[in-house]
Amino acid sequence: MKKLLVVLAALLLAMPVCALAEDYAASGSAAKTQLKEFVVYTDKNARDNHYIPSGWMGDYGDIKLNDQSADNPQAGTTSIEINYSGKKTQNQGWAGVYWQNPANNWGTKKGGFDLTGMTKVTFWARGAKGGEVIQKFIVGGIKGTYADTATVEMGPIELTDTWKQYTINLAGKDLSSIIGGFGFVVNADTNPDGARFYIDNIKFEADPTVKPEGKKQEGMPFYVYADKRSMNNHFIPSGWMGDYGDIKIDTASSDDPYLGDTCLKIVYSGKASQGARWAGIYWQNPANNWGNVDAGFDLSKATKVTFWARGANGGERIEEFKIGGIMGEFSDSDTAGVGPVILNKEWTQYTIDLKGKDLSYIIGGFCWATNLDANPEGCTFYLDEIKYE
Amino acid sequence: MLIPKAAHSILTKLSTNKKNRKLPACPAGRQAANHKVTGFIPVTLCICVLAAFLLGMAKRPQPKAFIKKLPGSRYQLIVDGKPYVIKGVCYSPIPIGQTSSYDWWSDPNKPWLVDGKLMKEMGVNTIRLYESHEDAEKVKIVIRDLYEKFGIRTIIGNWLGFWQYPCPFYGDKGFEDKIKQEILDMVKALKDEPGVLMWVLGNENNYSCLGQVNAWSTPEIDKEINPQKQKEMRYKIYYSFVNEISKAIHAIDPDHPVALGNGELIGLDQANKYCQDVDVVACIIYRGKTFGNLFNSLKATFDKPLYLSEFGADAYDAYLDKEDQNMQAFFLESQWRLIYQNLATNKDGSGNCIGGTSFEWNDEWWKHDESNPQGWERHDTVSNWSNGSYYFDIKAKDNKNMNEEWFGIVALSPELKDGVNKRVPRKAYYVIKEFWKNPNFSNGKKNNKK
């Protein structure tokens, strides 16, 4: 009898392991088994969960993740609670987490799942207070030797304080190898006091009614910069050029903004730190995209870009303000600019004419450049309300 | 034969007057005589008008080469009565160990004969020369040899004093007159050579209007404090000067189109105001595998036919630090495909492109370190400029990925053959040769160089 009990206990212990092994074998190719859904998370310890929330990014010290929060789950007994402090612990200004397979796989090893046949990811989310801004939710997009075969992003999204279901359309995407099954990114600009939010029931689904999304023409106005905390902002001022050591940018200057609470303050020291004798910044999508990432916005509806600018003293000379013009594997579809411009001390609106331009693919949303010859002592200038119209 | 509208209306008018004239009553014999007299005048007039018209026609045969405008701002280059697509290369046969000042025109080994044979085999029908030689007879020999032996025509350029020290003094009458005379002398000397195809005025001189290179000014511009207005004033002076030369060339040579050489499309909105007398825009474009919105953008700013006077790719991977012929062939094939997509004959394209001359036929070993004669003997692999649209090697140090000495579609070997450096065609030579034979331009989505 004792032996029988031991055997039974061993069988009971072995069953979940076998089931898990079978599950992995099957889920290694969702396409082969024609799965209707493929779960990332339903409940803590649910046996059909896949992927591990191991890929912490940016200001990872700002994040606390509890995947067994019992605080009002959307379904089941637990949900995922994320606390983002916004303290910029690693001085990045943003943070995020990827659910990976296997854990900590940044495309350096084999893994992931063949999710061919899946057409969408659905999940539920809510904020603790409402108003929390998630910059983006992501499926795929991990680079490296064993890169994900697709990248799909959605956002920014402003959460409400009640559960709401969200869907990421995956129809038509190559899901044959997905290491990064799910992820989110938040930033301190849109959540200056941090954010606490919850996610539940994340799963891939094979829904034949979902059709591939065509390239979306963005509506107008399309802001590059409205206000520091505006979730309408697009593009990141990440493309520092020339004497990048000469540049300081404050994206939340309260020094007499033209509209709203903040404006951009740019200080060019003119020290020629890198010996180039000029400097400039591109606003890119995503950050640091010099044409190597296929992520252009279709801004075909725009006929002009307008922005407001002023110099700290007046008389500062900016050689050029422009849009587009980044050349790479995925180049901007066109470019247009205005300049040289001598700034006034008072806010002045400038316009870049876009008539006749092909704006179907823009990764370089805005740019300025100046040089030492034009500003021997450097210069300080302000920008606000940069938008496509 | 078509009768010109003016001549036709004169004839119609005379005929109508005759019909409407009310003749006075008179004896039959007299009436007959009157008829004879009154009929004589219009007939004579008709003959005179027709003769004048025919004489006019005789004086104005169809130009040897001209631009034909088709509906929808589509353009074709017509040469000897037939549509002509420029399938060309920029040509500067500087041998290993020499620099840009080398007088290759006087080379007794005649490198253009070696090159012309290879070019003909590839399908090249045009070369572009950046400038002429002071001895027009030498230039004629090169043009004639290439045309008569290989059927290759020549586009001849002039720098418009762009490299004169300390800067080109556009706006200065003495400077402009000197340059203009130099060009007109060249045109007079060469215009009757059957191998001449077109004249190109300037290269990237428009950048001087931005003050980016060879900056120049005038007292009036110096007085202007608004830098945008300064820029516009420079454009006005420069493009008006080009326009004036173009008109002067047309006056002495109606047989060949005149092109405005321009870096990218920069400043062409101003050329539209001041430079309408050029026939063609000759653009220098380095945008990797695509020309982007180039063709439509030109149509919107300066509606002229586009000749891509310089484009191409180097054959050296600055990141992996080794020759990569696949990379060069990939970019060049993509660029030629886009040129063909936008010829007037392709209804789906912009229709305003008339062909191109890729940069360049052969490598030039002097380019990286021009001031060092030892460098002329060395095929330098150091890059000195960056262009992200040639993305395969953009991760090279400081993103410098463009290798100026490796743009040839034929490499040069130190080994001599018939007195010139042996030519070694690269993969691009064969890929473009095949493309020209069977131009398949339906698929522009190829992304892999291998």
Describe the protein.
Chain A is mainly beta. Chain A has 2 domains: 31-205, Sandwich (Jelly Rolls), CATH 2.60.120.430; 222-388, Galactose-binding domain-like (Jelly Rolls, Sandwich), CATH 2.60.120.260. Chain A is built from 2 helices and 26 strands. Chain A has helices at residues 2-27, 30-33, and strands at 37-41, 52-58, 63-69, 79-84, 94-100, 120-127, 133-134, 136-140, 151-154, 157-158, 164-169, 180-187, 195-205, 222-225, 236-242, 247-253, 263-268, 278-284, 304-311, 317-318, 320-324, 335-338, 341-342, 348-353, 364-371, 379-388. Mean pLDDT of chain A is 90; it is low at 4-28. Chain B has 450 residues and is of the alpha/beta class. Chain B folds into 2 domains: 5-59; 65-437, Alpha-Beta Barrel (TIM Barrel), CATH 3.20.20. Helix content of chain B is 38%, strand content 17%. Chain B has 12 helices and 15 strands. Chain B has helices at residues 5-20, 28-59, 111-122, 136-150, 173-190, 219-223, 227-252, 268-274, 294-301, 325-341, 373-376, 427-437, and strands at 65-70, 74-79, 82-83, 86-90, 126-129, 153-158, 196-201, 258-263, 280-284, 306-310, 316-317, 322-323, 353-358, 410-417, 420-425. Chain B has an 8-stranded parallel beta barrel, surrounded by 4 helices. In chain B, strands 1-2-3 form a 3-stranded antiparallel beta sheet, with no helix packed on it. Chain B has a two-stranded antiparallel sheet with strand order 11-12. In chain B, helix 5 links the parallel strand 6 (153-158) and strand 7 (196-201). In chain B, helix 1 (5-20) runs antiparallel to helix 2 and helix 10 runs parallel beside helix 12 (427-437). Chain B is globular. The termini of chain B are far apart. The A-B interface holds A 290-292, 317, 326-329, 331-334, 338-342, 355-358 and B 225-228, 231, 287-288, 290, 292-293, 296-297, 300-301, 387-389, 391, 394, 447.
